[in-house]
Specification:
Blueprint: H1 2-24, E1 34-59, E2 64-76, E3 79-92, E4 95-104, E5 112-122, E6 130-141, E7 147-148, E8 151-152, E9 162-176, E10 179-199, E11 203-225
Antiparallel strand pairs: 1-2, 1-3, 1-11, 3-4, 4-5, 5-6, 6-9, 7-8, 9-10, 10-11
Length: 226
């Protein structure tokens, strides 16, 4: 009789345990899952440009050269409005590799794009449809490559030679099967250096500049979870 009573207590515990684990298990962002994102980003940047202009002139009286150097600093608050598209591939539960394409619609360049590679970790809250996430990435852009703050390189080309550090944190709110709303605070650090020179035997001019932009934006978008 005692054995029967003991078994009657143990069996429900064994039965309930896997049921609890099933409820708390991760529903989305599991290994092998794919996520497609589309969002808009609105915010402001804080930029600083330091430039140096060095000219070397030939002195006809003593047949020597004399040098003059001018330095300047320029600051601005550029407005940012970006369309962002990305595809995330979940390599382990919660962690996705996420290539990203940004198109900046407010810029001095003809077409401003950024190509980024991100790592995103999606946290899972048991029995909740809210997934907090953090993101970090790196890539390249033509945000400042050809024309920036009144200076043109004169090449007519916009190369992806602006370096971009990307970071963000936010929430994904799953409201139906396979669909989620995405809210994110995003930070991007752009850095660009450029130099060019021109002249002849009697005159040489060298221009060097370094520009950094710290951009903070609020992103709102949608995700398709596959």
């Amino acid at each position: 009789m005692k054995k029967i009573m003991l078994l009657s207590l143990i069996i429900p515990v064994i039965y309930i345990h896997p049921q609890v684990r099933q409820i708390e298990s991760r529903t989305y962002f599991k290994q092998g899952d794919i996520e497609a994102n589309l969002s808009t980003n609105l915010g402001v940047g804080f930029s600083t440009t330091n430039s140096t202009n060095t000219s070397q002139n030939f002195n006809y009286y003593d047949s020597t050269y004399y040098t003059e150097t001018y330095r300047s600093e320029y600051s601005d608050r550029p407005f940012n409005f970006l369309i962002t598209a990305s595809v995330g591939i979940c390599i382990i539960d919660g962690l996705t590799v996420e290539p990203e394409l940004d198109i900046n619609l407010v810029t001095d360049a003809e077409v401003s794009i950024s190509l980024l590679g991100n790592l995103t970790y999606n946290f899972s809250i048991p029995r909740k449809s809210v997934f907090p996430f953090i993101k970090i990435g790196y890539g390249f852009s033509n945000y400042m490559s050809d024309y920036y703050y009144g200076y043109s390189s004169g090449t007519g080309e916009s190369s992806l030679d602006t370096k971009v550090f990307n970071a963000g944190l936010g929430l994904k709110l799953v409201y139906s099967s396979g669909m989620a709303m995405k809210l994110e605070i995003n930070y991007k650090h752009y850095s660009y250096s450029n130099s060019y020179s021109y002249g002849d035997y009697y005159y040489q001019n060298v221009y060097e500049s370094n520009t950094v932009v710290d951009a903070l934006t609020l992103s709102i978008g949608y995700s398709i979870l596959l």
